[in-house]
UniProtKB/TrEMBL annotation:
One of its GO terms (molecular function) is manganese ion binding. Pfam families: CpsB_CapC. PANTHER family: TYROSINE-PROTEIN PHOSPHATASE YWQE. It catalyses: O-phospho-L-tyrosyl-[protein] + H2O = L-tyrosyl-[protein] + phosphate. The keyword Amino-acid biosynthesis does not apply. It is an enzyme of class 3 (hydrolase). SUPFAM superfamilies: PHP domain-like. This is protein-tyrosine-phosphatase.
Length: 249
């Protein structure tokens, strides 16, 4: 089933994240999801991200109503905590917040009711799917997001293994108007070789728009910092920098 994923040799180049500029997927707000748990841990991660070359961060806590009932108020309060800690520590980096929304019934209700969503630059909504079982109405949900005036960005499509048997679904989603965001750790073997192969297939087929760290802890950033990834980090035309232009006053 996975034969189509294999075949090309990978060249290895040093990590270069300065050109990426902005990270649009991380879990830095302490204690509200499965990411950083303390302000100290958050600060350590932020310092590391700055050293990797990021000039701006949009952190994206989970909103999964069965697990993490994060509201805009909770997230923005956490963001102010981060900003205050950075200011006190003399860490000069711009931090904003959006959210990573799980496509569950609560999210559908929010869309229906016109409730506030926390968005990435350009009114983009970062969404994620279940890992184990596909939703029967993924395309319909993404179309509804577009109908409501948002631009859907699907987080880490390379990790949804149930699509591996027919990867043409990703092209259909892109053609429908969805942008795709690959995880930096998927460019190595952190999640396993099959996820890596899928990430490379998506990149080879020019289906990825954005790169994200999806950093939950220092170990993730340390893996990214090793620089043992492949050519994509330095050569693929990720569109992250265009989001910085949107954020300019």
């Amino acid at each position: 089933m996975l034969n189509w994923l294999f075949g090309k040799e990978k060249s290895v180049e040093p990590i270069q994240l300065n050109r990426i500029g902005i990270d649009i997927h991380s879990h830095l707000i302490p204690g509200i999801d499965d990411g950083a748990q303390t302000v100290e841990e958050s600060m350590e991660m932020i310092v590391k991200m700055k050293s990797l070359g990021y000039s701006r961060l949009v952190t994206t806590p989970h909103v999964i109503w069965d697990c993490y009932r994060n509201t805009p108020a909770i997230i923005m309060e956490g963001l102010q905590t981060l900003r205050a800690a950075c200011s006190a520590a003399g860490i000069d980096i711009q931090i904003d917040a959006a959210a990573e929304y799980f496509l569950d019934e609560h999210f559908v209700e929010m869309l229906r009711n016109g409730e506030q969503l926390l968005t990435l630059p350009g009114n983009r909504v970062l969404v994620e799917l279940p890992y184990s079982t596909p939703l029967m109405n993924t395309s319909e949900l993404l179309f509804t997001i577009i109908e409501k005036g948002y631009q859907p960005v699907l987080a880490h499509p390379e990790r949804y293994t149930y699509f591996y048997s027919d990867p043409s679904i990703f092209r259909k989603l892109v053609d429908q108007g969805c942008e795709l965001q690959v995880n930096a750790l998927s460019l190595g073997n952190y999640y396993g070789p099959n996820v890596n192969k899928m990430a490379e297939w998506l990149l080879e087929n020019q289906l990825i728009t954005f790169l994200g760290s999806d950093a939950h802890k220092m170990a993730h950033l340390n893996m990214i910092a090793k620089g043992d990834k492949n050519r994509w980090l330095s050569k693929y035309p990720f569109q992250n920098e265009k989001l910085i232009e949107i954020l300019q006053p």
